[in-house]
Amino acid sequence: MTEKTLHLAVALDGLGWHPAAWRLSRADATALLTARYWNTLAGEAERGALDLLTIEDSLGLQTSGPDGPDGRLDQVRGRLDAVQIAARLAPLTRHIGLIPTTSTTHTEPFHVSSAVATLDHVSGGRAGWRPRVSATHAEAGHFGRRDIPPLDLSRLDEPETVQLVGDLFAEAGDAVEVVRRLWDSWQDDAVIRDVPTGRFVDRERLHYIDFTGQWFSVKGPTIVPRSPQGQPVVAALAHSSVPYAFAARHADIVFVTPVDTEHVAAIVAEVRAAEETVGRTDAPLRVLADLVVLLDETPTLARRRRTRLDELHGEEFTSDAATFAGTPGQLADLLADWHRAGVDGFRLRPAVLPNDLTAITRVVVPALRDRGLFRAGYPGGTLRDLLGLPRPASRYAVAATA
Amino acid sequence: MPKQVILAAHFPGVNNTTVWSDPASGSQIDFSSFVHLARTAERGKFDFLFLAEGLRLREQRGRIHDLDVVGRPDTLTVLAALAAVTTHLGLAGTLNTTFREPYELARQLASLDHLSGGRAAWNVVTTSDAFTGENFRRGGYLDRALRYERAAEFVRTARELWESWPAEAIVGDRDGGRYIAEASPGAFAHRGDQFDIAGHFTVPRSPQVHPVILQAGDSPDGREFAVSSADAIFSRHGTLEAGQEFYRDVKARLARYGRQPDDLKIIPGVTFVLGETDAEAQERAHHIRRQQVSPQTAILLLEQLWNRDLSGYDPEGPLPAEDPDVSGDAISRGRAGMHPDPVDTARQWRALAEEKGLGIRDLIIEVTGRQSFVGTAQQVAERMNHFVQSDAADGFILVPHLTPGGLDEFVDQVVPLLQERGVFRADYTGTTLRDHLGLGPARPVTEAGAM
Fold first, then answer.
1. Is B141 assigned to a binding site?
2. CA pair distance B348, B319, nearest whole angstrom
3. What distance in Å separates residue B427's CA from the closest CA in chain A?
4. Do B296 and A197 touch (CB under 8 A)?
5. What is the pTM (predicted TM-score) of this model?
6. Which residues contact A303 (CB under 8 A, 6 or more apart)?
7. pLDDT single digits (tens) B230-262
8. pLDDT band at residue B448 using 50, 70 and 90 as cut-offs
9. Assigned CATH for A7-133+233-305+320-401
10. What DSSP state is assigned to residue B52?
């Protein structure tokens, strides 16, 4: 193998990322409410030896508009809690990383910390977390604790919006900081079960985190003993400078959305610059490029399927990430190009589930292996091991011995 | 046909009833422990598995409590994972309403109900504890008097959300291009004293529609909350007579809410100790009590009543002569108060210790003992059935003292005897927890009267 192998992830959402996916999916329309559907997807992803899967989530109903329901009848609506899905998948998978999405705006950091650490325990060290800012009026209305004005895409550059987004990301940063401190708040060896002294834990190895920030404060320690990875893997989706900085400060993986090879190089440069600017000392971000994929046996068939989906949708599908429609071989070539341009790997978003996932695992993966770009199987170990990320020591243990 | 016994299993939690020092005690954290207990319960055809919850580590004398099991995994996450390794067992978790919001919790519970095929249950608890609140955005803001008000409105709001998707909302008509039948599925608006929220719920109707609601408080407010809002209630009434009195009282209150006596199950939490002979069981019970109340634990439990630092006292020596401190802050935090009148309780304990010649540790063992069913498997099966047939309970939540194997002998020895008597199922006849409990379909919130 002459080149470093790449990391490969799959993003799961509904019946696929194309809004008309449910019209052509092999799965039935209500499948996404069943455990069997998710088990099938995870099993398929693991068959392809993919590094990890992510599960999208939101505290509002899916919509094609910027904020609030769009009144459409022709798209998938309704979904389950992503952490619950990930936990349901954990005992039935063995190797693949499981990364659910939660809100940093409305969900309590203490609850998230417990849930993701527990996901790490029940999966034997395969948990991750994708923190996500909830910037919509609709989601805020479900909680009634704060007002967020309706999101207007034509006013994104106005000072109030810039300020709001800045605040939401700063709060998200505090939330991740708290979650990570809580993950560290039990040292690995805190449970001592010392019968002679009658002590179950050594309280000197449990730590208050005493976080006080602009938006909230949290005392700690967590209720969950330190998990197999110590720190589950934190992943962030980022499209611009504010989230790049957020990822550089707080995440282990960043999902980015280049449109072509030149853009790949530019984004990677921007991410590395952000790491420098924030003074990152952890392992460099693993940069994975997002790509919506629609695969078929010939370029013509793939194009035709894309056209068919767009017709069913009523307009051309566009997304924050670029869309690829072609053969698995063409996709493998493109991934190799982008990989050379500097990304560590990819998070593929299947246009139709499970159809395009199956094409990834059964055809794209072998094609990447033929090119020497992907592992033959799972080497064993935790998600951190798989990603080449070191297992961090508890910051409090380090402080105690320093 | 005799009344059928309800059986549930509690995963041994973070208090001194859980014996961690025994060589047979395994991990409290490893998922394999939860799998073992859940599979044992399902092998025994139990109604459900029950997990408690903690949101802050307990403290005593300003330091984290270190003598009992400390720490546990997140309740909902474990239950969702257990759904993957069980097929029929109900999955019940304690989830505090004070530091959660209805939209999010209703969503999680509905998701668990979908992912388990209709086996989710929620034990609704409240706290006004600012100590616990220090881990949350909201802090300890809630006035004690508002606890059940918030809880009742919380449950009502959750029910509104669970009902917000009509059963036929998803049509999935591929040819006609209609995924949903209406433009605004999940629409809701709740305006109340505690919650003012509106929008769209994201989880379509789940198999049970309303996951089973459990309630665990015994105050008059708690009882009223249970009869208005719950499907089952945990109680702690040790004797047959106390159980019967509680049972009569609670079941009689149901009519005012338009509910039948069978609509609310009474399921006390109980312990059990089995032996080949009664004498052997008694001896094991005593041994377990000594494991549960170590010398250090005896002093700590005494401090919780006295509300003073008693670390200088000899665990085998006499009780303190001074009275409990009722003036200052609680010495123990993160633990529910157990003694309404500490000075009077202390007086009773002193009298008991003197009468029986007990030192601190033996006194604590005597006064905190709640070993409900001790005897041979035959005796335990008979007594449990007697409790149920004479309306002191509808069934039991068994609290083993060992993790994870503490339920094994009960399932192997006692369950077959209950089955022989025709008072416990030989196999599951339904698939949802509501089926197991004989609750019937969820009653729509719109018909639920004065909830």
1. no
2. 11
3. 24
4. yes
5. 0.97
6. A325
7. 999 998 877 899 999 999 999 999 999 999 999
8. very low
9. 3.20.20.30
10. -
